[in-house]
Sequence to fold (457 residues):
Amino acid sequence: METVDVVVIGAGVAGLTAARLLANADADGDGEPAAGRRVVVLEARDRVGGRVHTDRSGGHVTDLGASWIHGVDGSAVAEAVTAFGIRTVEFTVGGYQVDSRPIAYHGADGHRLDDAAIHRFSADVHTVDATLADVVAASGPTDTYRDVTERAVAAQVWDAERAERVREHLEHRSEEQYGVASDELAAHGLDDDSIDGDEVVFPDGYDALPTHLAAGLDVRLRHVVHSVRHGEDGIEVTTDHGTFHAEAVVVTVPVGVLQSDDFVIEPPLPARHRQALERLRMNAFEKVVLRFPERFWDEDVYAIRQLGPEGRWWHSWYDLTRLDGVPTLLTFAAGPAARAIRGWSVEQVTASLLEQLRRLYGDRVPAPSTVQVTAWQDDPFARGSYAHMLPGSATDDHDDLAVPIDGRLHLAGEATWTDDPATVAGAMYSGHRAAEQILGRDVPIARLWSGALNGTT
Fold:
């Protein structure tokens, strides 16, 4: 058995943030250089990053997990990226925004809408959104996002076709923002859906962030944790490579793993934590990245969207050509679509997508050069892309998960952060919180990128 001060389970951004701040903490908080806590990070995968995962096969850089910083203003993630010298490119898409950036809309017949038609549609969405805020505020505890959007649309007293277009947009918003159909999302499940400042993506890969955070840390890869036992004598963490004893543990595994029988916490989590956990679920949300030998869509658009029944699954494509100059479209299989294509071959997914693109652009659409399809639902160490709130949940459920247990067991990760869950920022802030809880004092989050660790900055 190996003994350390703190075991951190998971080398994603939450775990690495907690570990780096703990390992870099001066002993008494006086600011003077001193040895920090002895921390070991146990990671089941053969890499750091967790759901931040960059693929570099074929000479291309593709972020298969997290891609964006959703709003750089006041973001610790953005500050860390800047401090580490990681390149970014502005690409603001908003919370499934309806306008403000150039979007090529196509109607149900496949033809591109003119500016006047787009303006009318956008104005309708904004009108419903203005109503929706009050409807959500007045919603009941078990109301779904579909319930409140139906009420907000019905309040406009529009004809059926006009109402359906907006209803469709709101359904896709639920799917694309949280990877779940609107009748599976809490009415207030998008309350946190706000973005401050531009959004940016990473031409060299988002994994540069966890790589920098991991520098100098004791990270043990391919260490699958089976159980965490906590009591008066400390923490005992059992892995397939032996057992670790510590004074405290930070558990950063995704909600899907935390809910599984493969990850055991003994004694079980207190009722407050169990109840909060029961009201969260991992989503079904996959990326499809298509690179083409030539561009067939317009130069001046951020995104392509099709309205109507044909857009049930494939309705939005985002132009990532700006990252490396290769004509590239990103789309999402979200919620029902992700579940439907689960187990499909890449060829099947490609054929389904091309059918829709060729509805819009005809024979101009060539066969893609490469296609990459993620499978986060089938990843045993993720079991989905990120967590969402079930009907009956409360926003406090996120914070309830993070309440320390017996002063030794700490849960962190994107699902434990109320203000910005489902994001890398939420993961980072939750790791910072866990470190402060263990240290018993405030620690500037800037120490992540400004402090030295084993000679590494």
Q: What stands out?
A: The CA atoms of residues 77 and 425 lie 6 Å apart. The radius of gyration is 23 Å.
